[in-house]
């Protein structure tokens, strides 16, 4: 499972080097590089929320 997490964390870096190294494409009126950065900030937040919900240590009703 750790290898999957490590691999998915490398995807934005690989994509930024190969795919988005351009000025021209615009998405939602902003340059693609800026869109890419905003997208990954949002996706990272989403991934952290999902991980928090799925983590057994964070279940309600846990005796402390």
Explain the overall architecture.
This protein is mainly α. The chain has a domain at 16-51. The chain has helices at residues 2-18, 32-54; strands spanning 26-27, 30-31. It has a two-stranded antiparallel sheet. A hairpin with a 2-residue loop joins strand 1 and strand 2 (30-31). The longest helix has 23 residues, at 32-54. The mean pLDDT is 77.
Topology, number of strands? 2
Mean pLDDT level: 77
How is the main sheet built?
2 strands, antiparallel
Q: Would you tell me the structural class of the helices and strands? A: mainly alpha
Head-to-tail CA distance between termini: 28 Å
Shape type: elongated
Widest sheet, order of strands: 1-2
The H-and-E topology, N to C, reads as HEEH
Helix content: 55-70%
Rg estimate, integer Å:
16 Å
β-strand percent reads 5-15%
Total count of helical runs of at least 4 residues: 2
Uncertain segments:
none
Layout of helices and strands:
Blueprint: H1 2-18, E1 26-27, E2 30-31, H2 32-54
Antiparallel strand pairs: 1-2
Which key terms come to mind for this protein?
64 residues; mainly alpha; 6% strand
Write a concise synopsis of the structure shown.
Helix content is 62%, strand content 6%.
């Amino acid at each position: 499972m750790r290898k999957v997490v490590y691999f998915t964390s490398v995807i934005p870096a690989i994509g930024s080097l190969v795919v988005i190294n351009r000025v021209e494409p615009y998405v939602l009126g902003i340059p693609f590089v800026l869109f890419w950065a905003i997208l990954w900030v949002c996706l990272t937040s989403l991934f952290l929320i999902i991980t928090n919900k799925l983590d057994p240590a964070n279940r309600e009703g846990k005796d402390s």
